[in-house]
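Hey forum,

I'm writing up a methods section and want to include a predicted complex as supplementary material. The small molecule is ribulose-5-phosphate. I've pasted the protein sequence and the SMILES. Can someone with a working setup run it? I'll credit the forum in the acknowledgements.
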Amino acid sequence: MGLGLGARLARLAHLARLARLARRVRPHCPRARRHPSVGSVLVYHHTSGVQLPVTLPVTFHTRSGWTEFTPRFYGQPSTLSRIMSSGTAQPLSPVEAAKRDAAYAAIDRHVRPDMQMVGIGSGSTIVYGVQRIAAKTQAGDLGPHIKYVPTSFQAKKLITQHGLPLGSLDEGLRLDVTIDGCDEADEELTLIKGGGGCLAQEKVVAHFSREFVVIADYRKRSPRLGTAWAYVPIEVLPLAYVPERLGGSAVLRMAQAKAGPVVTDNSNFILDWHFRDSKVFEGGPETTDRVKWSLVNQQLLAIPGLVETGIFINMARQAYFGQADGSVQELAAKPV
Ligand SMILES: O=C(CO)[C@H](O)[C@H](O)COP(=O)(O)O
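Reply by user p_vandermeer:
Happy to help. Structure tokens for the complex are below, copy them as they are.
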């Protein structure tokens, strides 16, 4: 039976997209220059601000001294997961592999078939988590009834691109679990988040979850917060972007491919507060780090126009840190 007009247009659009992807790369099939053959090309698929390597199966042709190639995957794949299932991903760097291992461990342990709503964090590590969820859903290990609540525009796109059901906090249910990355975590699982500028929504979704689980590579675990990460991202109303009371230095985060500041999903600005020189840390030497960060957080939140901070205290109960050797370290927060 022939394809309907809609299906043919969708296929044409899909082929055009694959061809655009494929043209960006050089074939790594040596025989391609001599005669038609099959092989693969490595492409970088940009999704939600994240660059992922994908190996695309293609047929090579040589014409007028040029090598051309046609994608060999002519199904209906409109999502990244389906494209990836048609090829073999290139080996990941140790850091990327560590992110993937942490994400897979957390998903396998904390996202269960009897759940209803799962929060999806933002950043590059959660991309592997969503891939795992999509694969488990396709395999029937997770039901299609589970809804996924995004913590950002990026997370929303990830969920929909993988064909997963989108949920929202409006539905009034408490989330079963939220899985999210972090920029730095100490041994009490006090976190700095917001490197991707999504901290406000991330904190709200985590707050409405029964469980909040952190996934990260080995660079993110620190004996003390502020060892590896020197600033706290803070979301502020645009009119409140110069909080003089902070001490240290608060730097307005500027956009990379747009003139002017980063504008968050909530239409606010981000200040990266470099806290090491500030005087806001209170308490004597006996005051615990958790209490110090809690006091700092309270002081920040008292500033008019400050929407939310990237300091997450007493929220994460469990963390998974992928290691360079392929193992995954687990860390449980001690009860307060
Ligand atoms: O807080 C975040 C975004 O606002 C991210 O979770 C955090 O920046 C970690 O990102 P990545 O997984 O790319 O290391």
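Some notes you might quote in the supplement: The radius of gyration is 23 Å. The chain has seven helices and 16 strands.
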